[in-house]
Every structure is written in C-alpha cells, then in structure tokens.
Amino acid sequence: MIILDENQHRVASHKEGPALVLAGAGAGKTASIIGRTLELVESGVPSSRILLLTFSRKAAREMRERAMMAFGEGGATIQASTFHAFCGRIFRQYESVIRPPLIKPQAQGNIAHTGTDNTAPSQKIQEHQGDRVTQLDEGGQSHIAMEAIRRQYKDPKEAELALKEMDWRKWLSAYDRLRSEGYTAQAQGAAQMTTDFINAWWRVEFTEAQKDPMAGDLYQFAVWYETEKRLAHVIDFGDLINLPFDFLRANPPAMAKLAHRYDQIIIDEAQDMDAAQYQGIQRLARAMPTPNLMLVGDDDQSIYGFRGSSPSVLQYFADIFRPEIYRLERNYRSTREIVQRASQHVAHNRHRIPKEPFSERETEESIFAYRHETDMDVLYWITRRLLQAHADGAPWSSFAVLYRSRRFGPQISALLVRYRIPFVIYGGLSFFEYLEVKFAGAYARLATNPRDSAALRDLAPLLPGVGDRYMDLLHAALMENPTFGFVQAAEACASNRFRTAHQSILKVQKTLRHLLQSNPETWGKTCWEYENSGIRVYLEKADAKEYADDKSALIASLKRRQDNLGFFDQMITDVIHEADAEEAKHPVLLIAGMFVTDAQKKDEDGDRVVLATVHACKGLEFDEVHIPGFVQPLMPWPIDDDRDITTLPPDDQQRIYAQREEERRISYVALTRAKHRLFLHVPGRFVTAANLMLNGAIRAPYLNELGLTAVPAPFQAARMDTAVQATANVIPFRPKPVEEDCRGG
Ligand SMILES: Nc1ncnc2c1ncn2[C@@H]1O[C@H](COP(=O)(O)OP(=O)(O)OP(=O)(O)O)[C@@H](O)[C@H]1O
C-alpha cells in the first residue's frame, strides 16, 4: 500500500470548504483521492455521503478497487461513478418530468419547420406519459441527424441530394459543442442560438470570414435535430448531462434534496469537465450547506477540447470559489530525464498554470529518439525490440505503443499477431478485424480447410441467401458427414428454398479455385479484384451507404481498404520468404495461419502489450513506451501547420494557438505514461495505409522542444533477421498435409 508523502497527506486531510489539487503527471492523484476518502470515512463520514466522480468507467472501477484494498476486507465501499452514470441516475429518478416532451408518432408526418421557428408546433407535441426514452450512441446520433434532414423534404430524391450537399456532420459537431456548454435550440431561441452557433461552429473549424453565411442553417439544423430526437423518443450524450442539470437548476427543492445527500464531492481529472458539467457541479456544490467540492486535476493533461473541455476550468474554479490550493509536484512514475524533458516541452504552452514537477528516480538514459527510413521500418523495429526485451525477461504488459491516430493500431497489431505477441487494443480495431482483411483471411482459411464452417460464416455477408438458418443446416450436414467439405455439405442441404444460397456456395468454390491458381503473394489484391469473391462489391455498397453524403470520404475509405490489403500482401510476402522450404510449399496455409489472432487479443487484464491512442491511455503507466510517429503531421497533428499567423484576425490566432496547445498537451500525456524507457520514433516517410491522411513534409518539431536529436536506429529491422526469429515464438507454420486444398469435398 502507498504511504502518502507530506503534500499528498495534506490533500487527504483537507478539512472543509472548496479545494483545488493541482497535480502534475504521475504525482499520485488517485492515491491522494483514496487517502482522502479513507480519512473522511475514518472521521465518521459515511462512504455513501461522498460523491466521487471520474470520466471513464475504467477510472471509476480502478478507484473502487483501490479503495477496497485500502479499506480492507469488509470495509466501506466508495461510490465512484462517471459523470454520465451520475446524471443517468438523476435522469431516471425524475424521468417523467426531466425528459423533453415526446412527439406522438402519428404527428410525425405533419411536422413542418420554418427555419426561424424555434419550437416545433406545440399542438403537435404531446406528452407520452409512461413512455421511456432510450439513449443514442454516436452512430445513433448520426442516424437521427440524417433522418431529421430527410424529414424536411417530400421527395426522397431531393432529400438524398440535400444530405449530400449539406455538411451535416460538422453541424452535428457544432451542436454537440454547444450542448457541452448547456445550450438547446428549443430553449435559447433563434437569435441567441444563432450567435452562439456561429461561435461554436467557428471554434470547431472555421475562420472569421467563413462563419456568417452558415449561421441560419446551423440554427435550423439544431431545431430539426432536437425535434427528431423527440419524435424518436431518444436522448443523446449531451442530453444525459444537460437535462438533469437543467432540471435541478429550475427545481431548487430537488437540487437541495440532492445536495443534502452528500457531505463531500471529489472530482478526479477535473480538467476534462466541459462547461455544462462544471456549471452543474458548481450549482450542486453551492446548494450544499458547505461547498465541500474538491477538484483534482492537471491543466497540462486537458486533451478533450474537441468535446468541449478546456484547461482553463481549473483556473476558473480558483477564481470563483477561492479554494484552498494544494500542489502535488513530485512525479513518482517516471525517471528524472523523462519528467524534466516532458515538462520543458509542455512549458512551451502559454496558457497554463506554471508548475515545477520533479522526480527522484534516477536512470542513466531513458529517452531514445530514433530515425528510421519508413513507418514500416518503425513497426518492425518495435516488434523486434519487444521480442528481445521479452526474451530478456520483461513481461508483455510492461510495454505500450501509443499513437495519435487510431490508424496506427491495426498496422502494429498486424505484426504483433504475426510474431505471436499478445496485445490488447484500447480504442480501435485490430488489423485483422478490418472487414476486407477478415474476408480475405476467411477465404484462406476455407481454402486450407474446406470443413471450416466458421470461415464460411465469416464470409456470409458476401453471400446472398446465406443466413443463420442456412449456415445451421450446412454446419449440421458437415457434422454428420466427417468426409464432407463445404460443397458436399451444400449439395446435401440443397432445396428450392435455399437456391440462392446454393449458388453463392458454388461461387465460393470458384473463387477459391481462382485464388489458388493466383500468386499467393497477392492474395489480398486478388481477393479485391476478383469479382466473384464479392468483397469489393460488398464493401463498395456498404461504404456508399455509410458515406452517402460525402464523396471524398467514400473514395478515401475504398482507397484505405485497398491499402490495407496491400499491407496484408506485404506481410504475406514476408511470411513466405521467411518460411523454410517445407513450409513455403504451402503458402495458403501460411496465410491462414496469420489469422490465429483471437487468443492474442482477448482478456484485457492478462500479460499483454497495450496498443492505444493517447486519448485512450490516460491515467495508465508502463515501464516502456513507444511512440511510433513522433513527427508532424502525426504528433503534432496536421492541424498545427506552424505557419506565421500573426497577420490573421485575433480570434483566428487565438483558435490556432488553442489547437497548437492542445496538441502539445496530447504529446505530453503520451510522454508521461513512461516509467523507465521512452522510445520516440521518427520515420522519414510513410508507406503504410497511414500515409493516406498524412500530407505535408515530415518534421519533428517536438524533439527540439524536448532538447533531443534523433539518431539512426541502432539496428536495421526492416525485416526480422534469423537470430530474432530464433528467439521469437514466430507462428510455427508447420503445414499439415492437405489433400486438395479447395476441393470443397
Ligand atoms: N507516495 C507515493 N509513494 C510511492 N509511490 C507513489 C506515491 N504516490 C503515487 N505513487 C505511484 O506513482 C504512480 C503514479 O500515480 P497515479 O497513477 O495516482 O498518478 P496520477 O497523478 O493519477 O498520474 P496521471 O495524471 O499522469 O495519470 C503510481 O505508480 C503510484 O503507485
């Protein structure tokens, strides 16, 4: 158990009134919060009267578990919950009064919008007492937004055209931003909303000159969208926070009742609060007999600007509440070098509360900045490093590979799968979960084992007529006849009813024949180009639907799919070339073998390497961290174009500064996850699918700020050499005799 140091102890024993704990990275915020809860309980405060709020379920769970350890068996439990869970409870408690008036389904067709009308016609809106509302996820929000726009047009063709022309995703994003500040179109009215929308829109993306012409449209969209939610009886994330807090504000007795339930409120990662959350909590604290509100946070780690949070919330709280301020500056996590350089880096931000973090952990050298020819070389290098370090005794869970964009996850995961390194991905897909790759792999599996009904099931979306019923039948036929392949099984269950499915199965057989006659090193490409495989046709259709309103996104998605298959082929080539003569005789078996992935990525708590976006790794720490693209345009993200902005209007300058500072904070969060070793990789060019979104020259501006220069990576790892293969548990592709790969029975 952690013994609190003097400063942490002061936090734990804070007496009464508002408090602000300004803590640097790795300064033991969690330990201090647990310590404080413990002291409160020991001083007689029932744990149920302590409200502990965090931002992620993971953080809430960790807090509960650590408290449980501290309290010991049979001790008190603390109620740590996320903001959304807390607001959700209030929502459910008062649902019939909180939820917005729902609209009767039969009135839907009559709703007309006039753009300047800020309420839907009241006579058409009726309360549905007894109805429950459900909550939208992100995909659901987009769906409702599109439906809201469609409803404005009588002619469906006109509606689709309008959707294509409108930039509604950005409207939705601006709307969300406004919601995070507590606004609703219905309540604010056209004039107020329009002005605020202009600003919200502008903060999201646009410059001074561009914003005026869009204002009216944005307001109109908000009214449509809000009405649509009421028609569909749904609420979104913004509603889940705003509706309960709005209700409490308008109902002092309910607010007082809630406020009297708690003696203490503690907010972890307080820098991540958006304005609506902050205002809600501030009001709740004011309604308490004593505002016992403690915010614990680090403005340098505020990285959710895109969701409406701002690093200035801590300063704002300090100005308004005049709280007792505690500083935790000793970093217990990282070496002195990491702490010093990372602090020097983030100090380039102008708008921050100055801090003096320090560490007493000494190591000789803990940051390594390496130059590589391409990003592919980086991936191989990291893989090789992990294999070697693990062979030397380091557990897999001591490593993390952190990236700015989700696009990097699949690339690195592909190599880890190949070298049997167990991993877990936070935020994003593994390479083998991309549909195009998954389908290509399923064909390879079926080619090597014609009885593999799981592979056939994976292909089912491509196969007209092949549904669950048919697959169950086919599977049963396979089970009953151990000598059958999938084609014989299909013959056995042929019937009029499943004629289409049967045709599809014959096409699969044809595709496999074609694939087996083609070059195995272009398996992915062949799968894409050969029409009978159904992959291209299916994905083109799916993407056309998904990006119906955005042609360039559609083109980019299809290109990315092909690039993924190109990357897949590159890996196949490597696998074949590295195989011994016997293995190389069965290249398709080698391809199928690459898909032994499941066991490698389940079970979050096991011994596995963490692959994560910076946003998904907040609060975590690892012995060794790799950042595969420590270069602009990845870190910092392309938004920071580094051009001279001094001639721009002041508002635009401010916006760009804010974005630049947020980028630097993201980098800071990534760097400060490392305890002992930090590897910063600088590729000279991008050759993987990640290159799609990266245009512009590659530079490494943050290395200068860290006071580092990249040196050539100490060993060439473009391809695994035999020595490494010998230490690695490389997938043992020992081919089993296969009679005739794709006979299908
Ligand atoms: N008093 C202490 N003595 C020894 N180790 C400590 C102490 N306080 C914290 N630590 C250790 O320091 C590390 C960082 O702590 P913690 O994760 O709570 O930091 P944090 O402030 O939440 O960091 P971040 O904001 O960067 O996520 C943990 O490994 C923790 O066990």
UniProtKB/TrEMBL annotation:
* Keyword match Ribosomal protein: no
Which protein, by its recorded name, is this?
DNA 3'-5' helicase
Q: Which CDD domains match?
A: DEXQc_UvrD (cd17932)
The species is Acidithiobacillus ferrooxidans (strain ATCC 23270 / DSM 14882 / CIP 104768 / NCIMB 8455)
A Pfam family per the record:
UvrD_C
Annotated residues that bind ATP are located at 23-30
Report keywords, A-Z.
ATP-binding, DNA-binding, Helicase, Hydrolase, Isomerase, Nucleotide-binding
Q: Which InterPro entries does the entry link to?
A: DExx_box_DNA_helicase_dom_sf (IPR013986), DNA_helicase_UvrD-like_C (IPR014017), DNA_helicase_UvrD/REP (IPR000212), P-loop_NTPase (IPR027417), UvrD-like_ATP-bd (IPR014016)
Q: Which GO terms describe its molecular function?
A: 3'-5' DNA helicase activity; ATP binding; ATP hydrolysis activity; DNA binding
Q: Name one GO biological process term.
A: recombinational repair
Q: What Gene3D superfamilies does the annotation carry?
A: 1.10.10.160, P-loop containing nucleotide triphosphate hydrolases (3.40.50.300), PCRA, domain 4 (1.10.486.10)
Catalytic class of the enzyme: isomerase
UvrD-like helicase C-terminal domain sequence ranges: 336-619
Q: Which family does it belong to?
A: Belongs to the helicase family. UvrD subfamily.
Stretches assigned to the UvrD-like helicase ATP-binding domain: 2-335
As its record notes, the protein acts as a catalyst of: ATP + H2O = ADP + phosphate + H(+); Couples ATP hydrolysis with the unwinding of duplex DNA by translocating in the 3'-5' direction
Give the EC number. 5.6.2.4
